[in-house]
Amino acid sequence: MSPAWTFVCPAGELLPGEMKPVFDEATGVPILVINLDGELYALEDRCSHEDFELSAGAVDPAEGSIECVLHGARFDVRDGRALCAPAYSPVPKFPVKVEDGGVWTRDDRD
After folding, report:
1. Does a structural domain hold residue 107?
2. Can you tell me the distance from the alpha carbon of 11 to that of 21, in angstroms, rounded to the nearest whole number?
3. DSSP 3-state assignment of 76?
4. How many whole angstroms from its chain centre is CA 100?
5. Dist. CA 48–CA 25, nearest whole Å
6. What's the mean pLDDT in 21-30?
7. 24 half-sphere exposure, CB direction, 13 A CA radius
8. In this predicted model, what pLDDT tens digit does every residue of 37-52 receive, in sequence order?
């Protein structure tokens, strides 16, 4: 059985440069959906360095990254890879879709 999709927001509410945190009820995972120049990406809303929500940080549209406010770790919004210390592990990336006028995501890990 494939995991259920979680509704994030109406598609028109997530403008370029904006992000929206959501909670995947099925898996208990916080997910952050980010609009990077019109493309939507979803990452686990948790820094891999010290379990702190990435949604408290800022997106750098030029670099395509998000920075954790706790210790300055940065992650690539497109694939979740760590870009600098103190983080060395990537954050999980999740699928995003726009359907029926809404933005949806899910934790697709087994």
Report:
1. no
2. 14
3. strand
4. 21
5. 21
6. 94
7. 24
8. 999 999 999 999 999 9
Amino acid at 70: L
Domain CATH code at residue 65: 2.102.10.10
pLDDT > 80? residue 16: yes
Q: Domain range holding 30? A: 17-97
CB 66 within 8 Å of CB 78 = no
Q: What angle do CA 91, 13, 30 make, to 5 degrees?
A: 30
Average pLDDT over residues 5-24: 96
Residue 7 placed within a domain = no
- Tell me the sheet residues that pair with 62: none
Are 10 and 102 contacting, i.e. CB atoms less than 8 angstroms apart? yes
